[in-house]
Amino acid sequence: MTLPPVRTVAQAIRAATEQLGAGTDSARLDAELLMAHALGISRSQMFLQRMGDAVPDSFAGYITRRAAHEPVAYIRGHQEFYGLDFKVTPAVLIPRADSETLVEAALAARSDAAHVLDCGTGSGALLLAVLDGLPAARGLGIDRSAAALDVARINSDRLGLSPRTDLRLADWTTPGWADDLGRFDLVLANPPYVEIHADLAPDVRDHEPACALFAGADGLDDYRLLVPVLPDLLTPQGVALVEIGATQADAVCAIGATVGLESRVHRDLGDRNRVIAFTILLGKPPASA
């Protein structure tokens, strides 16, 4: 698929918007972001200074990739999250605005946190956004994907947070995975929670890492493994914040209750259930006691 002949950036954006229109509900924005990427400048700079310029050679290829449903974030190689810019590759999920609910809840719950754990850190977005908001805290991010940890390391370096960040290979589907991690004031997690047969947009299903998306027939497989371990990872006043699908709050809260965790549900900007904050019930021993 190729763009029709055009002379200027403005004309190319209009043509690309028309080309992408049937395949995405954000065609104009996608075209603008990809043009700014091709020009090597910000979108605002493009609007102010470059709309009459010649079209970069790379732009047509970017539009062809987007027309094939490759996410804009992967084409550009980065994504903004909680006011920070993160490198992303197909090895990691693309950070989404809904997940900012977890960061806000974490910072509000324990503004005094000294030690933070992120389970399934991926790009490092959750951990690094929280550490950015807690200048005295140190963080540990774990992931079962070495490629994802490579991306997280790049992001910790870019954001100047590597001196306070430790990244390790660990897999919560493996017995004993948490034995030597210690205890934390904050535990963060955005585990896989999509039902295996869910009808996802091709941008997601065909491009983002399946191991970070799907969690069995009901989307709860990873919660059944991860949540029961949380009491052994938390300090007595610690808080674990776990992202969920919009319909999963009752089921995930129930898993927590079986191991002595009290739960509070946080809703996102779309007023959907998005994050559960778990704390240890007073007088309830850790699960391993």
Protein described:
- The protein has 289 residues and is α/β, with parallel strands linked by helices.
- It contains twelve helices and nine strands.
- It has helices at 9-20, 27-39, 43-50, 58-67, 72-76, 100-109, 125-133, 146-158, 202-205, 221-226, 230-233, 249-257; strands spanning 78-81, 84-87, 115-119, 138-143, 165-169, 184-189, 234-243, 261-267, 273-280.
- The strands form two sheets. Strands 5-4-3-6-7-9-8 form a seven-stranded mixed sheet, with helices on both faces.
- The termini are far apart.
Spatial order of the strands forming the largest sheet? 5-4-3-6-7-9-8
CATH fold annotation of the largest domain: Rossmann fold
Largest beta-sheet details: 7 strands, mixed
Q: Just name the CATH architecture of the largest domain.
A: 3-Layer(aba) Sandwich
- Based on secondary structure, the structural category is alpha/beta
Instruction: Please give the share of residues in helix.
Output: 25-40%
Stretches where pLDDT falls below 50 for ≥5 residues? none
* Helix and strand element order: HHHHHEEHEHEHEEHHHEHEE
CATH-wise, what's the superfamily of the largest domain?
Vaccinia Virus protein VP39
Number of domains: 2
